[in-house]
Specification:
The complex is a heterodimer of chains A (about 110) and B (about 120). Chain A is mainly β. Chain A has no helices and 11 strands. In chain A, strands 2, 4, 5, 9, 10 and 11 form a 6-stranded mixed β-sheet that branches. In chain A, strands 1-3-8-7-6 form a 5-stranded antiparallel β-sheet, with no helix packed on it. Chain B is mainly β and about 120 residues long. Chain B is globular and about 40 Å long. The mean pLDDT of chain B is about 90. The chains are: A mainly beta (about 110), B mainly beta (about 120).
Chain lengths: ~110, ~120
């Protein structure tokens, strides 16, 4: 079993839709949860950062962490064609902070 | 603006060749990383370095070595390239410490796509 599971998609939605992207994980030691966005032929860039459980909102993006269920989500409101990218969840534990584990990434297409 | 530069975007090499992938960061970051990215497998850590001349194996170090002679530069070396090393290679860097500016937040380069024939 992988430490982090993420549905690779692709996920195709119409412009303006609410998008929900999710990851599950098995290591209860994870405390830092990140979402990275990767455009085609580019490297990933940090989109959201959350420590421990709870919600974090930044503009149209909301990250949720449920440590009891080992489940994290990224919501995109009013999705735009420019949101079309691959979204990677990532997480790490408090110890050995150099080891960030990534999900496989979900490919998102937002159609105009 | 924080920047990680990978010198080669696209490379084509032959089986058995020695391959060097270079990465330079200009943010004075302590930590540097090499990942490979393959469809369905996500990013897998090959090696990382938390200081000059220091290196640690990641999850898939076999067939690779690294060099960090200067703080800003981290090189990945494939001693004898094989076809199963065809992949996208991503270099990243981070500061030390915890929190949103620390070791858990990676800044990536644009990637080097390597094809081994």
């Amino acid at each position: 079993q992988k430490e982090v599971e993420q549905d690779p998609g692709p996920l195709s939605v119409p412009e303006g839709a609410i998008v929900s992207l999710n990851c599950t994980y098995s290591n209860s030691a994870f405390q830092y949860f990140m979402w990275y966005r990767q455009y085609s032929r580019k490297g990933p860039e940090l989109l959201m950062y959350t420590y421990s459980s709870g919600n974090k909102e930044d503009g149209r993006f909301t990250a949720q962490v449920d440590k009891s269920s080992k489940y994290i989500s990224l919501f995109i409101r009013d999705s735009q064609p420019s949101d079309s990218a691959t979204y990677l969840c990532a997480m790490s534990a408090n110890t050995g902070g150099f080891k960030t584990i990534f999900g496989a990434g979900t490919r998102l297409f937002v159609k105009a | 603006d924080v920047k990680v530069t990978q010198s080669s975007r696209y490379l084509v090499k032959r089986t058995g060749e020695k391959v060097f992938l270079e990465c330079v960061q200009d943010m004075d970051h302590e930590n540097m990383f090499w990942y490979r990215q393959d469809p369905g497998l996500g990013l897998r850590l090959i090696y990382f370095s938390y200081d000059v001349k220091m290196k640690e194996k990641g999850d898939i170090p076999e067939g690779y070595s690294v060099s960090r002679e200067k703080k800003e530069r981290f090189s990945l070396i494939l001693e004898s390239a094989s076809t199963n090393q065809t992949s996208m290679y991503l270099c990243a860097s981070s500061l030390s410490g915890q929190g949103p500016s620390g070791a858990n937040v990676l800044t990536f380069g644009a990637g080097s796509r390597l094809t081994v024939l």
